[in-house]
Design brief:
Elements (H helix, E strand, L loop, with lengths): L2 H12 L24 H12 L7 H9 L5 H11 L5 H9 L11 H6 L5 H11 L14 H10 L6 H8 L5 H12 L3 H13 L2 H13 L4 H4 L1 H16 L4 H12 L6 H26 L11 E6 L2 H13 L3 E6 L7 E3 L8 E3 L8 E3 L9 H17 L4 H22 L14 E3 L8 H14 L7 E8 L22 H12 L1 H6 L12 E8 L4 E5 L9 H26 L6 H13 L15 E4 L14 E4 L10 H8 L1 H17 L1 H4 L7 E4 L4 E4 L5 E2 L8 E2 L2 E2 L7 E4 L3 H10 L1 H8 L4 E6 L2 E6 L2 E4 L6
Parallel strand pairs: 1-2, 1-7, 3-5, 7-8, 10-11, 10-17, 17-18
Antiparallel strand pairs: 3-4, 5-6, 8-9, 12-13, 13-14, 15-16, 18-19, 19-20
Helix pairs in contact: 1-11, 3-5, 4-16, 7-8, 8-14, 10-14, 11-14, 12-14, 17-23, 23-24, 28-29
Length: 772
């Protein structure tokens, strides 16, 4: 195959973003591989290749305009800042009579059958990857493409001529692609568009195959996305072979024809821009309001994950007790660890999806102190494997039915889901050789965390991870902590607290410019986002002089939980009036097997604020903002800010764009209806109804309640408290950051002397406050 076709194939496959397994589920930007292109250009291509533009329909913006959610001032500012070739009058007229969408590209199978016919590929993927609990492996050792080719050749549903044609192609995937490409003789640009279009027909499985390259590089040659791309191209080649002469001429013509103009997309993007400015103007007004003064030195500081659900709780916690201050940091607390005690088959990563764990939690030898827990989990895994053995259909239910029946009854009578357990870590070891972590590594981890927290000043520091509770919920991991690989953050908090309390670490920190108060102690805790209860992991080593501060924190946390539940209840339809009854009702949502929406998760996320808590103290941000500490005076070189813009900002953007994509393009990037879900492979993902297509993204119930949309589809607004030159230097140094900003995948703003102002290559533009 020529290099031009190989490059085209790579561009097409790179356009598909990865997904993670259900038990490690994290939010993913589905356009990550296209961030080097302007978002409007990607939208135009997606509309042509999949019939799915990346904006809401015109009716949505018309309703927002008529309801006052978008004002004339928003439209005028969007026109000025975006350079759109419209007037306000023409934009309003567009909403009244939007032009008909362009006809999307059609595969040969759509021409033949009226539908894309790619369920055949999805069926093979479901069969190939449904090796229950084997985690990315295929017991037969056969690669995906030969597995599919062999299956189709013996599938009597397909015509004999098709099966015979398939036999003429090579068994090696790239050789087959080379033969197909030579037969078509398309331009490399057309070949790229065709390949990407076909992969979008099996987008869920393409995303899964892409994920294999991210998670298990050794499995990529046998089951990665190039295997699926070969299947898609060969399948299309078989379809083209069945077209009539006229149909074939039309099929070739559509791929060689240039792309249509952006005119029909620009108007909707202008309305989307104005819609986002409406939120930014409201945010500017809130941030411009005077901040409530903080106590000079709080008795307790509680560091929460930046997750938007923590914003409400932090606000109410500070209101409950003025001696308690809060901080925001990524919920894995800078601990790149994997939990090796979760089971015998694999360690569970507890890091953001873009990172790899450098250390593992557990015992140095599974046959020593941790042997009992290890054996217990091995027995559970044996039962799980037995459930999926061929003969279990005839034997397992009859022999164990009574025992399982009692469990079903007991679980059905439960009034709340089990509280997540988090045992104290027994040790921290290197992942590559199992050696205990060295003292200098401990100090480096502690220094990094304390720097991100802005050098805490309270004698008692509580590190609060978060978790959620729900039964019968394949997407449970999506409600826990995206900063912890789909796991609760309690374990990371316990690891971090143990490091900060280490005598060797505390003695070394002053030599690195970090002075802790005396006495100083760190505790770990977990915030349940379902019930807004906080559980503190007590430690007998804590000095008695800090007991009163701990009691004050726990009392304030109880009051904050009640206030937060009261604020959240209306959106969940919880109408209980009493605080106790309201708590019981929310806890019951997690135990109810039929509840498709235990909580709203990160719905309505819209902003990331990198600033001292003093800039947002006492300001109601409605649970829509990720809040991370950043102290510009402590970071003259900008290295801390650069790390924040390369890590938490990217994670927040992934979360934001997954919610956006699941809302604006639900058929392609949404999870579908939870009521119709079936789990594939135990951990691979979900399918909807009898369709073999893998559904990715957020289910409908995570975004809307019936016909009412609960998530505003907005691109992330990043607010930074830092000098212009420092921010611009980071944009200049970091191409990934520059691509996201310059191509409008997110909006970058700063807290300037005169309010909020937004970055553009032409300069910083002020964002006016709420409704002048």
């Amino acid at each position: 195959m020529t290099s031009s076709y190989l490059d085209a194939l790579k561009r097409a496959t790179d356009a598909i973003a990865p997904v993670w397994p259900l038990d490690q589920w994290i939010a993913v930007n589905p356009w990550w591989g296209l961030k080097h292109q302007p978002i409007e250009q990607v939208s135009q291509a997606l509309s042509r290749r999949a019939g799915q533009p990346m904006t809401m329909p015109a009716e949505f913006y018309r309703h927002a305009w008529e309801a006052g959610r978008i004002t004339s001032q928003d439209v005028q500012q969007a026109l000025r800042q975006g350079g759109y070739a419209y007037s306000e009058q023409s934009l309003v007229g567009y909403l009244a009579s939007p032009p008909k969408a362009a006809t999307p590209l059609r595969s040969a199978w759509e021409v033949l059958k009226g539908h894309d016919g790619f369920d055949a590929l999805a069926e093979s993927c479901a069969s190939y990857f449904d090796q229950h609990q084997q985690r990315w492996s295929n017991p037969t050792g056969e690669s995906l493409y030969p597995f599919w080719k062999h299956t189709v050749q013996h599938d009597l549903r397909w015509p004999k001529t098709l099966r015979q044609s398939l036999r003429t192609l090579p068994d090696e995937p790239m050789a087959a692609v080379e033969q197909v490409a030579a037969d078509w003789a398309l331009t490399p640009e057309a070949f790229e568009a065709l390949t990407h279009t076909l992969l979008l027909r099996v987008n869920g499985w393409a995303s899964w195959c892409q994920g294999i390259g991210w998670h298990s590089a050794d499995q990529q040659p046998s089951a990665g996305i190039h295997q699926l791309a070969a299947m898609a191209l060969v399948w299309e080649w078989l379809g083209v072979d069945q077209l009539t002469t006229v149909q074939r001429r039309e099929w070739f013509s559509q791929w060689q024809t240039g792309q249509s103009t952006l005119d029909q997309h620009e108007a909707l993007w202008c309305w989307q821009h104005a819609y986002e400015l409406g939120y930014q103007r409201a945010l500017a007004s809130v941030l411009a309001a005077p901040s409530e003064p903080l106590p000079h030195v709080p008795k307790v500081q509680a560091a929460f994950c930046i997750d938007v659900r923590s914003e409400r709780f932090r606000r109410h916690l500070e209101n409950a007790d003025a001696s308690v201050g809060t901080l925001g940091v990524a919920g894995f607390f800078g601990m790149p660890v994997a939990d090796a005690d979760t089971g015998p088959e694999r360690a569970q990563p507890r890091v953001p999806g873009l990172l790899k764990p450098a250390y593992r939690i557990g015992t140095p030898d599974p046959h020593a102190q941790g042997i009992q827990r290890y054996q217990q989990e091995s027995q559970r895994q044996s039962v799980r494997h037995a459930k999926y053995a061929p003969l279990s259909t005839f034997t397992l239910v009859e022999t164990t039915g009574i025992a399982w029946g009692w469990k079903l009854i007991k679980d059905s009578l439960r009034k709340q889901a089990p509280v997540p357990q988090c045992e104290a870590p027994e040790g921290l070891f290197h992942t590559y050789d199992g050696e205990p972590i060295a003292g200098h590594d401990k100090v480096a981890l502690a220094k990094n965390l304390l720097t991100l927290l802005g050098h805490p000043s309270a004698s008692l520091l509580v590190l609060v991870g978060h978790d959620s509770q729900s039964d019968n919920n394949p997407h449970h991991a999506g409600l826990t902590c995206g900063a912890c690989g789909g796991q609760g953050g309690g374990m990371n908090a316990r690891v971090a607290a143990a490091l900060l309390n280490d005598t060797e670490v505390q003695q070394a920190l002053p030599q690195m410019g970090i002075v802790l108060p005396s006495p100083f102690f760190a505790l770990a805790a977990t915030h349940c986002t379902l019930t807004d209860r906080v559980h503190v992991y007590h430690d007998e080593q804590m000095p008695e002089t800090l007991e009163s501060a701990l009691r004050a924190f726990e009392t304030a946390a109880q009051r904050a939980g009640a206030a937060t539940r009261l604020e959240r209840a209306p959106a969940l339809g919880v109408e209980k009036q009493g605080a106790t009854e309201r708590l019981e009702s929310m806890a019951m949502r997690g135990a109810d097997w039929s509840q498709p929406r235990p909580e709203w998760g990160l719905v309505n996320n819209a902003a990331l604020i990198l600033a001292p808590r003093a800039r947002t103290q006492g300001k109601a941000l409605d649970g829509r903002a990720f809040l991370h500490e950043y102290y510009p005076e402590q970071d003259p070189e900008g290295s801390v800010l650069e790390g924040l813009m390369m890590a938490p900002m990217l994670v927040a953007s992934w979360i934001n764009l997954q919610y956006y994509a699941s809302t604006v393009v639900p058929d392609l990037y949404g999870g579908g209806n939870k009521l119709l879900h079936s789990v594939v492979g135990g951990h691979v993902g979900v399918i909807e109804g009898n369709s073999p297509q893998l559904r990715i993204g957020l289910p409908e119930q995570s975004l809307r309640d019936g016909d009412t949309l609960h998530h505003e589809p907005l691109r992330l607004t990043v607010v930074v408290d830092a000098p212009k030159a420092r921010i611009e230097a980071i944009i200049e140094r970091q191409p990934v950051v520059a691509e996201l900003i310059h191509h409008r995948w997110l909006w970058l703003t700063r807290l300037g002397e005169n309010g909020l102002e937004r970055y553009s290559p032409q300069g910083w533009q002020p964002i006016a406050g709420e409704r002048e």
